[in-house]
Structures
1.
Amino acid sequence: MASVMFTDCSSSTAAAALLLPSSRYRVRHSVLHSLWSMPLQFAPVKPILLRTTATISHASASPSIVTADLERAFSTNTSLYSTAMAAETSAKIIDGKSIAKQIRDEITVEISRMKDTVGVVPGLAVILVGDRKDSATYVRNKKKACESVGINSYEVHLPEDSTEQEVLTHISGFNDDPSVHGILVQLPLPSHMNEQNILNSVCIEKDVDGFHPLNIGRLAMRGREPLFVSCTPKGCIELLHRYGVDIKGRRAVVIGRSNIVGTPAALLLQREDATVSVVHSRTTNPEEITRQADIIIAAVGQANMVRGSWIKPGAVVIDVGINPVEDAKSAKGYCLVGDVCYEEACKIASAITPVPGGVGPMTIAMLLSNTLTSAKRMHNYK
Ligand SMILES: Nc1nc2c(c(=O)[nH]1)N[C@@H](CN(C=O)c1ccc(C(=O)N[C@@H](CCC(=O)O)C(=O)O)cc1)CN2
């Protein structure tokens, strides 16, 4: 369970203790509050280059992105570049919801082609343990997304007090089942379970979440290829590609160093030839480091932590955070905000993901993409 913050960026660290579904990738607020909220001077610098919308619509037509990890959605040698918008104009919105829809459409076509050609239908097994409402919602959305593209889904829902061994037994069954091409265990797991043991037991050929240490290890090594890249970081990079953001040679800052987002996001950016810094709860002067970045990926789980003054004019901002904040105007009494103070950032960045509707939908789209990749690989289908 997570606390609810206030929507106003200036009071972002004042938590009101209401009980709500947890935000993702949560870190200890008390540590972050003191270490991350020191004000810094604003220093204007050069904006990053973005391709124009003409290139983006070209990108939309390409189906190639779903066929291989990190494959480029479109050629990078187009000369349609423009300088980013000036600081006083609003940032371009990086629309994860619509890109995710495009990707689902591309996957639907691929799956139908594979079924018609070799008679194989990809299968995804999902294991959910416990009664967290947010996890149940994510699993439901994953099942719906599978249905929408033609992937078979198999769900095991275990009670909160299940044993680790029960989870391992189900994983072992799915590891041996040829109709299952992808296995995922919804996180977080109940605290009495050893997450590491459980994630290690998913066979790497079916590790569509990309959480197995061998897949993460391969991602970290030059000359090695992971079989799968975890879905949220992969979705972040996919958004940058599809919006024509140059990564090569750029300075990137990843805020947060979790195993499932921050660390793989930093590794992916490095593979794309960015110069990468990771800012975390023990970083001194996080604002100063972040303000040098052309590309920022914020994945820390603290509402509105990244203020406008942290952002270099023209930078591209990918906000992974999904944090509930108090909102009297909403029927639910809360709304979702990111780790970045959107109202400030959109005046300074050249492009930014919204929350909701940014990275979140991409996580599920990338899961579908990984499941398709897995089925193709197992059946040697191009
Ligand atoms: N096994 C895994 N566990 C978890 C993962 C994961 O990738 N694999 N990631 C998160 C949760 N998650 C998927 O599992 C996820 C979170 C959020 C969204 C999403 O679409 N968010 C929407 C807003 C949703 C809302 O209204 O509540 C958005 O940002 O627009 C999708 C998937 C932790 N666990």
2.
Amino acid sequence: MFLVGLTGGIASGKSSVIQVFQQLGCAVIDVDVIARQVVQPGYPAHQRIVEAFGTEVLLENGDIDRKVLGDLIFNQPDRRHLLNTITHPEIQKEMMKETFKYFLRGYRYVILDIPLLFETKKLLKYLKHTVVVYCDRDTQLARLMQRNNLNRQDAEARINSQLPLKDKVRMARHVLDNSGEWSLTRRQVILLHTELERSLEYLPLRLSVLTGLAGVASLLYLLTRYLLPSL
Ligand SMILES: CC(C)(COP(=O)(O)OP(=O)(O)OC[C@H]1O[C@@H](n2cnc3c(N)ncnc32)[C@H](O)[C@@H]1O)[C@@H](O)C(=O)NCCC(=O)NCCS
Ligand SMILES: Nc1ncnc2c1ncn2[C@@H]1O[C@H](COP(=O)(O)OP(=O)(O)OP(=O)(O)O)[C@@H](O)[C@H]1O
């Protein structure tokens, strides 16, 4: 198996692209979904957020008020850093568990949707491919304002909290341009999927696991055949 890191900017179209990969039967891990799970009441990160940010970031039912917390962290880099130090280790643990489950199920590749892949850089060394979902800044701003019902200032604060998309494009191996009509993006996703499906990059890990298993099996055989009877 090999890992593909998919990233982009806020509202550049990552989730829309991921949906197409899912429809094509791919194994997908969405870090935004994990990030929502690990801050639910009862999880360690929930308690640490309340300790760090106060009860004003809670809704009446105890859930995190994502709008309030978002407004806080997207406007204040030090508080954003604090939230990241609370949530990112928990997110990484869950990501590893989910990746391992897909490995056991025999998938050739897994796509990890990691919004801050190039900001944190931590996971880059594990990835065979990196994909950026790009759209031009005006389109990104318009889509973000519309989807999240944000004014221009709040939407710009969110965009400015991340590396510019143009920089991410330079760092990625593949770029999906989602500035135009959705049908054009969909076609690019299908082409990329075909390329990844044809790749033989999953073989080295699979062969080394099979070789390891064969080694253990041979050892067990030799033990039972020659050593155990004499004990
Ligand atoms: C700040 C929160 C509460 C805002 O919630 P909200 O529902 O409005 O947004 P959602 O979680 O759907 O994220 C939307 C997008 O915002 C961007 N974003 C989220 N967190 C961050 C961050 N810490 N820094 C920069 N951009 C971020 C990403 O592009 C993400 O895809 C939430 O994003 C959060 O808990 N963030 C911390 C965890 C994190 O870093 N997630 C990003 C994945 S590593
Ligand atoms: N090609 C397109 N044409 C028109 N609208 C689009 C296109 N691609 C995505 N959108 C819309 O833009 C918005 C952002 O897309 P999406 O939610 O996929 O982005 P995202 O990168 O996953 O966002 P986030 O970073 O917040 O998780 C959504 O409302 C989506 O329906």
